[in-house]
Amino acid sequence: MVSKNQIKLITSLQHKKYRNEHQLFLAEGVKVIQELLLSNFVLDHLFVTEAIFQNVSDSQKTSIKEQDMNRITALNTPSSCLAIFKMPKETKIETKGLIVALDDIRDPGNLGTIIRLCDWFGVKQLLCSPETVDVYNPKVIQATMGSITRVKISYVDVNEFILQSPLPVFGTFMDGKNVYEEKLPAEGILVLGNEANGISAAVEKSIKNRIAIPRFGDRQQTESLNVATATAIFLSEFRRNSSGK
Amino acid sequence: MVSKNQIKLITSLQHKKYRNEHQLFLAEGVKVIQELLLSNFVLDHLFVTEAIFQNVSDSQKTSIKEQDMNRITALNTPSSCLAIFKMPKETKIETKGLIVALDDIRDPGNLGTIIRLCDWFGVKQLLCSPETVDVYNPKVIQATMGSITRVKISYVDVNEFILQSPLPVFGTFMDGKNVYEEKLPAEGILVLGNEANGISAAVEKSIKNRIAIPRFGDRQQTESLNVATATAIFLSEFRRNSSGK
C-alpha cells in the first residue's frame, strides 16, 4: 500500500524544486532501476506491482496495486516498478579526456539520448549550462536507459569552464568547417547549443574551432539536424579520428 | 467555424485505417504545413486560429477559434494551424543511389528522425517493411519537420527488394565489422532493424555485409544505441567515404 504522504512526496518529485529540496529523484521501469541498483546510486524506496527485485530488502520495498501505480507514475504506460533514489553528492569535475558541454539543451529526450551517446563513446564528463533541462527530470532518467550511472553530469557555467581549461574547444555551427576534413584530438571540449538558437553569443566568443556536418544531396533545404543526432555524428568523428581510422 | 462532420473526419485521420480509406493525412504546425504547401503535396483543407497562410484561398481555408483547435489537434500544445493533405499516389521506387531500408521500426519519433537524416544526407529513397509505423501518422509528420517532401518513402517487402537488387547490401548488427574500417560505396542498401529485436531472421539471411559502430570507454555496458542515432552515424560514414574524406 502507498500512503497519502508517499503519494504527495512522489508527485512532488516531478518538479525540480522539490527534487532539490528533498535531494531525491524518481526512476521508472525495470531496466533503468536495475542499472541504478547495480551502480553507486543509493535507493531510498522501491514500489512494485509484481514480485520483482527480490534482492531488495522488504524495508525498502513496498508491493502496491496497479491502480496505486497509476496514481504515482509519470509515464503514459506505467511500468511494474517505480523507485525513489537519493541524488548523489556532487564530485570533482573531470578536466581531462573528451568532454561534452551543452549550452542550454531544453528537451529531456535530447539530454537523455546525449547521455546514452556519451556512455557509448566513453565520454566520462558531461557539462550542462544552468539553463539546460534538469538531468533528474523523470523523462531524462527514462531516456538515458541507465547510462546515467556511467557518465558524470555537472551543471556549471560553460563559458567559465572553457576559459580556464587548457583543452582545445570545438563548437558546432551551421557555417563551421567540414568535420570530415578536420583533425580531431583525443582530448578536447565539444560544445553543442540550444535546439532553436544554437550556441549562445557569450560562449561562441570563447570557441576557436567551428565545425559542421556537411549537407549532401541536390536540394539542401533541410534546416538543421536534431541536436542529439548531430551529437552522435560528432562523437563518432572524434572517436574515429583518435582511433586512427 | 469547424463543422461536426469536419471534426469527425479530422479525428478519424488519427487512425491509419481511415487515412487509407480517405487517402488523406493531417499536418500541424507552421513549418511543416509551409513545407508541404511549397512541395508537390496537394492541400485538401487548412484550419487556422490566426491570420496566416494568406496565399491559401478562402475556399480552402477556415478560420477557427482556439477552443475548436483544441478539439481537433493531436498535439499536447496545439499550434495555430492544422491542415488536411491528400496522400500522394505511389510512384516508382528509386533503385539507384544510397537507399535506406527499415525492417519494422515502430516508434514514430524514430521514423521521423530517420526521414530527416535521409534528407540531410541526400538519400532519395527510404524503404519501409509493412510492419514499420505509418509515415502518415501525425507524430511522424511532425517529427520530419518537412523533410517528408524531399524523401520518397515506399512500403515494400524489404527482403524481396534486397534479393532482386544488384546493389550491395549492408546490415547493422551488434557483432558486425567496425564501420570505420569498411570501405563503403556511394550506392548501396543500408538496412536497420526493429528497436527491440534488430533485423529479422528472414532479412538477415539476405545480408552479406554486417557492420557495427564500435563501443569506446572501459566499461562497455551500454546495451545499444538508439536506432535513429545509429542511422545518423552510419549515413555519415557512407557519405564521408564516398566524398573521399
What strand order characterises the main sheet of chain A?
A: 7-6-5-9-8-10
Q: Mean of the pLDDT scores of chain A?
A: 94
- Reading off the top of the CATH hierarchy, the class of the largest domain in chain A is best stated as Alpha Beta
The CATH superfamily of the largest domain in chain A turns out to be: SPOUT methyltransferase, trefoil knot domain
For the structure shown, list the relevant keywords:
homodimer; 245 residues; alpha/beta; 60s Ribosomal Protein L30, Chain: A; Alpha/beta knot; 2 domains; 6-stranded parallel β-sheet; 4-stranded mixed β-sheet; 9 helices; 10 strands; 22% strand; elongated
How would you explain this protein's 3D organization?
Chain A is an alpha/beta fold and 245 residues long. Chain A folds into 2 domains: 4-86, Ribosomal protein L30/S12 (60s Ribosomal Protein L30, Chain: A), CATH 3.30.1330.30; 98-242, Alpha/beta knot. Chain A is 32% helix and 22% strand. Chain A contains 9 helices and 10 strands. Chain A has helices spanning 4-12, 16-22, 30-37, 66-72, 108-120, 138-144, 158-164, 201-204, 227-242, and strands spanning 24-28, 42-48, 61-63, 81-86, 98-103, 125-128, 152-155, 169-178, 188-193, 209-212. Chain A has a 6-stranded parallel beta sheet, covered by helices on one side. In chain A, strands 1-4-2-3 form a 4-stranded mixed beta sheet. In chain A, helix 6 (138-144) links the parallel strand 6 and strand 7 (152-155). The longest helix of chain A has 16 residues, at 227-242. The radius of gyration of chain A is 20 Å and the shape is elongated. Chain A starts with a helix and ends with a helix. The mean pLDDT of chain A is 94.
